[in-house]
Amino acid sequence: MSNSAPKLFHIEVVERSRNLANIPVVTADMNVVETDERFDRIVSVKMVGHMA
């Protein structure tokens, strides 16, 4: 999850170039997002320092 549309675009380009189809990427503000989805993994890269 990223709140940056350019980062989302970059991630999608890399996914396609590496034939990765099973990595969902969402553009949203992590401070307010709610979901009922369950995940087997969550990876945080440089996000914790930016959260309010």
Would you kindly provide a brief summary of this structure?
By secondary structure, this protein is an all-alpha fold. It is built from one helix and no strands.
Structure description:
It is built from one helix and no strands. It is mostly helical and 52 residues long. The chain has one helix spanning 5-17.
Largest sheet: none
The tally of strands reads 0
From the spread of the alpha carbons, the general shape counts as globular
Please trace the helix and strand order, writing H or E for each element.
H
What does the radius of gyration come to? 12 Å
Number of helices: 1
* Mean pLDDT across all amino acids: 79
| Intertermini distance | 16 Å
Structural class: mainly alpha
Measured by DSSP, the beta-strand proportion falls in under 5%
Helical residue percent band:
25-40%
The poorly predicted ranges are: none
Notable traits:
single chain; 52 residues; mainly alpha; 1 helix; 25% helix; globular
What is the topological layout?
Layout (H helix, E strand, L loop, with lengths): L4 H13 L35
